[in-house]
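Suppose you are handed a protein chain with no further information: no name, no annotation, nothing but its sequence. What can you learn? This example shows the usual starting point.
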Amino acid sequence: MQKEQWLKQVQPQERLLFAKVLDAAQSSIIRHKKTITDFIDKGKSSIFFEKVKCIQDLEVMVFGGNSESERCMMAFAPNNMELTEEDFPIKALHITKNNKFGQADLSHRDYLGSILGLGIDRAKVGDIIILEKETICYIHKDLAEYVQTALEFVSRTKVKVSVSDIFVVTLPEKVWKYHTMTVASLRLDAIASAAFHLSRAKVQQYIKKEIVQVNWNTVINPSLLLKEGDMISIRSFGRAKLFEIGNVTKKDRICVTIGRE
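A reasonable first move is to predict its three-dimensional structure. Written in structure tokens, the prediction is:
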């Protein structure tokens, strides 16, 4: 494996992380064993997966605790070994507040900051999912018991933490609000404008500020053409998904179905 040539295939800011992925893949081949990375943002893990899946005699799998995880580990194995979700060293933390007021007044930032404040590396922490009665945090299994013991407060709120296998976690089905509309084109600025009820000029400003992502990757090109299944997010505005691209109207506008969380 010519590592230097592989690293040239990704953006400069991604090369350090991609180097670690390549090291894990190479170790799997040389030592003939399964290797697994730390958690990686979904956008980057998707890019890296596309790059390395063609490596001969290597199996690759991406998983983060559930089928819709946004932070995932990458697993590698020789092609005569089967990779399964059980191979991933992930546990679920169940965090509940020691009062009667539920979870709503604590944010993702509060939970993440409190966990990292214990000296935990961000790469060891996966998705944090805030539910009505508890918050689920996926974490590397080697750190689960430590966090269970050490995490006493989130922000200034006292909490209780328990640990479980990830496969006993039941998450509510994601609910999308669908909207069918017409757009002038499939450009990012046009779709985002329709999805978030913003002017195209405003969307272009947000793109220029680098707070717009497509499929979890920051995009700086407002003319990027989107396809079915693409996820768009604008910081502070939430996310939208392009579910369907339909027919062209008599006025040369494109019918699309967009979902908002």
